[in-house]
Amino acid sequence: MPPIDSVFRPFRPSDAERSDRAAGDRARHRDKVRQAIRENIADILAEESIIGKDRDRIIKVPIRGIKEYRFIYGNGSPGVGTGNGQSQPGQVVGRQQGQAQGQPDRAGDQPGVDYYETDVRLDELIDLMFEDLELPDLERKRLREVPSDAIAKRKGYRQVGIRQRLDKRRTMRARVKRMLTTRERDPEADAERFPFHEDDLTYKHLVTDVREESNAVVMCLMDTSGSMDTMKKYLARCFFFLLYQFIRSKYRNVEIVFVAHHTEAKEVTEEEFFHKGESGGTLISSAYQKALEIITERYHPTLWNIYAFHCSDGDNFDTDNSAALRTAKELTDVCNLFGYGEIKPMGSRAYESSMLNVFRRLDAENFQTVLIERKEDVWPSFKALLAKDRVSESAAG
Amino acid sequence: MARVWDVNDLETWDTRIRARVEAYGLDCYPQEFELCDHTQMLAYMAYSGMPSHYPHWSYGKSFEKLKTLYDHGVSGLPYEMVINSNPALAYLMRDNSLLLQVLTIAHVYGHNDFFKNNFTFRTTRAEYTIPTYKAHAQRVRSYQEDPSIGLERVETILDAAHALSMQCRRNLAIRKRSEADARQAAIDAAQPPADPYQRIHRPRVSEVPDLRRTPIEPDEDLLLFVRDHNPYLSEWERDLLTIVQEQTQYFIPQIETKIMNEGWASYWHKRILDSLDLDTDLQLEFIVRHNQVVRPHEGSINPYHLGLRVWEDLHRRAGGGADGDAAIFAVREADRDTSFLRRHLTEELIRDLDLFEYQRKGNEYVITEVADEEGWRDIRDTLVVSVGMNSVPVIRVVDGDFGGKRTLALEHVHDGRDLHPEYAERTLAFVYQLWQREVTLDTVIGGKRQQLVHNDRGFTVKSGK
Does A104 fall in a domain? Predict the structure, then answer.
């Protein structure tokens, strides 16, 4: 038999450093995970009560769709295992995966692999959710633009500058160029030394780039009357929480105003808005009146883009309906968008009064209504109000 | 426990080990060892050990999974990886102790010998392994970078191809009949058998074989069938199917001989290290490490453990010594896991290993057979049908133009095990995607014949006739 050859290739750290060959495929996989999350946001929002949670909290998100499907046998087929010497017929050797981890609501027939769980930071989730959304019809109201960001940006090279911005590569190159031309002209020149000259030095040039953003204010109006039971309040808060997170993550200089109302309206803080309950009857016009007051006082429509959103169960005093309609009309005149969300948990719609009927008489292009019946509806209705394509649709139509 | 060592030490040990390997009569390809760190090892694992491999997100997923398990200490890393190529290429982990390296080197020669001599590997063309994978990678990248194709479309085809990749022929030593041969065989089969008493028998009418059907005999190579019979695929799509098919074919021998191969390598590292007269501390570490590798995994099958025990038993039963060697060398050439276990896993050994058969009852797995006189055959047979490619359902193309509508008719060769319904549904969607016309799959679910259909209206299940 011929002798066997062998070779040892020692470890080379340089190889190891640039050997992250899986980086591209990992990034692609990560994209697919994000894609799957995006497709399941409505489910995630319905299942996870993320409302009011800390932004850097990590939540577990069940996602489907990144499994690699093949033809495989179901798990009803028998298998063979190794025993410890005392195997007896009828002995239980294992339990189905996923069952042991305490998820009683899952179908017993499906193994736990049906779901693939991934950890996501809440703010990452929020970014994903709001990727395709923006405040519609944002006009550039030029009078009072706020410089929102001042970022230093590279822009070309200069002969002068501070030492930190010296571009070593270009400086070297300039010196080599000068050296070659000098030697060509004068081959006798001193070959030993060729020091840097002032003219070789090249500096990176930086400019500050100012991005300007239009002024905008978002008014959150919420019904906190007695008829708004826990479920309704929860749905309304869900909606406003999304709105609030959306604006916080997308628009740095957008101001937010919170108004809570029952028979009378008052401006409240974020904390009070999300966490305090009230009771009493409902006069919707009071909230609109308050919003109009605040607008006249602080946010003149020529300077500000104004967005107003109102959530209520629509259980208004009948006598107030005409006033509500009138003030709503006034609001649509000054706002870029006025959205009304009616919260009607399933089944309660038929025998209660609804503002949706009243508002049907309000004819304004920038007025939108949505109906929220279940927590699964919150996200679709939120999207319906803010989706980019809604803008293009209305522009086309 | 880590000992300081350098490459020179490894070379010294390697020379000693090679002398043993040659003395025992192992027949190896030239061997290359490469030292790598744990990140590189994770990457090699994710990419089936190949130095270059085409990109696909599933490898990123597998890397992440391996890394998570490793970082959380759930699973360690293998001490080595060997790939079947000529010269054989093995990766050694730089952080391992000297003893582990010595053990690994001996183990690698076992695999190397097996790759070179086992019959299942004859079709793999070991000389071309690495260049082939490199060429595949370049081709896939060139399609991804081609502006008229792009990453997304390449990925869509690869996703579908990966889903079907295991639907192929299992025993590559059996040559696939060419279409002409298959046709001839069908004609021959239709002829009445030669009858020596023609005069007294009524002449039998020869049946007319259906030669218009494609394929003439059921075809297990799903990807190749789609590639060759869907005229609407573009060249690059066909090429991607070819690439995925070739890579699967390369790995089938390794899937088919997992138990034999790991057992063989463990058997030889044990014999080689026992013959090396190790110092006491090395010897102690060897015993610990060896037992970690070949210990039984309670409730499942550890291929290192089972394989080693069968080889040892075989050697002993053949009379040990030179006779034993002759016996095991013959088996390592001519068997694969199914035949290896069917022939050489004896009743005594099954008893000794305390193997049992289990089945799911409700949410629990319950032992149904234990290693006794009645049970051992069932245990062996259940094991045989779950090793290697036997764990993949057999799906065959029956007709590529069913009903004259270019419907692809598939059948699942049901052997008592049902398909996983959700997986079958999703995978059938991939067949439909590649075939671009209606696809049907005949199977049995819960004792009833069913036909799964995927067409332009989506997925439906029909109860069979």
Answer: no
Cα–Cα distance between B177 and B209 in angstroms, integer?
17
Inter-chain touch B358–A90, beta carbons under 8 Å:
no
Total tally of structural domains belonging to chain A: 3
pLDDT tier, A147 (very low <50, low <70, confident <90, very high otherwise): low
Q: Which two tokens stand for residue A194?
A: 């060729």
The residue that leads in pLDDT, B304 or B363, is B304
Average pLDDT score over residue span B171-179 = 83
Give B386's contacts (C-beta < 8 A, 6+ positions apart): A77, A79, A80
- Of the candidates B22, B60, B165, which has its C-beta nearest A3's C-beta? B22
Among A45-49, A291-295, B100-104, B218-222, whose mean pLDDT is lowest? A45-49
Pairing between strand A265-268 and A254-261?
antiparallel
Query: What residues does each domain of chain B span?
Result: 7-118+257-344, 347-390, 391-463
Strand partners, A369: A340
The pair of three-digit structure tokens given for residue B66, joined into one six-digit string: 């391996």
Strand partners, B34: A9, B91
Q: Which residues, other chains included, contact A300 with Cβ-Cβ below 8 Å and sequence gap of 6+?
A: none
What number of C-beta contacts closer than 8 Å exist between A and B? Answer: 236
Examine the pLDDT at B335 and tell me if it is beyond 60: yes
- Mean pLDDT across the stretch A117-129? 67
pLDDT of residue A284: 86
pLDDT: which is higher, A245 or A107: A245
Locate the chain A residue with the closest alpha carbon to B29.
A4
Which value does ipTM take for this structure?
0.89
In this predicted structure, what is the pLDDT of residue A104? 30
* Most confident of the ranges A35-49, A260-274, B79-93: B79-93
Of B36, B357, B391, the CB nearest to A11: B36
Q: Does residue A74 fall inside a structural domain?
A: no
Q: Which residues of B touch A68 (CB under 8 A)?
A: 58, 159, 162-163
pTM to 2 decimal places: 0.72
Whether A38 and A187 map to the same domain: the answer is: no
Is A6 close to B421, i.e. CB distance below 8 A? no
Residue A206 lies in a domain: yes
Residue A94: its chain B contacts at CB < 8 A? 299, 358, 364-365
Contacts of A90 in chain B (CB under 8 A): 366-367
Whether residue A226 is found in the same domain as residue A173: no
Report the distance separating Cα B224 and Cα B16, nearest Å.
47
Structural domain that includes position A310: 214-396
Q: Is B224 exposed, middle or buried (0-12, 13-18, 19+ CB in 10 A)?
A: buried
Classify residue A230: in a domain, yes or no. Answer: yes
Residue in A8, A73, A110 nearest the CB of B10:
A8
Same domain, A198 and A307: no
> Pick the residue with more confidence: A153 or A178?
A178
